[in-house]
UniProtKB/TrEMBL annotation:
Position of the signal peptide: none
SUPFAM superfamilies named in the record: SufE/NifU
Annotated organism of origin: Nocardia speluncae
One example GO MF annotation: iron ion binding
InterPro entries in the cross-refs: NIF_FeS_clus_asmbl_NifU_N (IPR002871)
Protein's UniProt name: SUF system NifU family Fe-S cluster assembly protein
Annotated GO biological process: iron-sulfur cluster assembly
Amino acid sequence: MRMEQMYQEVILDHYKHPHNRGLREPYGAEVHHVNPTCGDEVTLRVHLGDDGDVADVSYDGQGCSISQASISVLTDQVIGLPVTEALGVVDSFNQMIGSRGTVEGDEDIIGDGIAFAGVAKYPARVKCALLGWMAFKDAVLRIDGAADAVVPAAATPETDRARNGETS
C-alpha cells in the first residue's frame, strides 16, 4: 500500500469516526472559527488541568473531510500535553501545512497529523486543515494564566501592547 493511500485512509477514518467530538464541560475557553472560503466551521472547547496540561479538548463542527478529520487528529495529539508542548505541536503542523509541500513534518511530533502532508500542495485546502488547530491555539490563549506562559515565545510589539492594555 502506498503511503499516500495510507494517509487517505487515516483522514477518512478520523472523518467517519471522529475522536473527542461533542462539546463537554468543564472548559476554560470556547471559540468558534469559520473558514469563509468554504463554510467549514468548528466550535472548540479547551480545558486545562491545574498542572497546566491540556486536560480536554472537545468540539462540534461541520465541513469537509479534511477539516473535520484534522480536528479529530488535533485532539488526539494535544490532550495530556503541557500547554507549551501542545502549542509546539500546533506550530509544527502549521509549518508543514503552510509549506506547499517543502516541509515533510515530523510524525513523532504531529502523529497522525502527518497524513495531511499532501494537503500542503493544495492552497485552497490548507485553511480546511488548519481550522481546528488555529481554534485550539486561540482557545488556549484565551484561558486565564495560559497567555502569560505562552505569549512571550511568539510575542510581537503589537501583542505586547495589546496584552498590556495599550493601543496603537
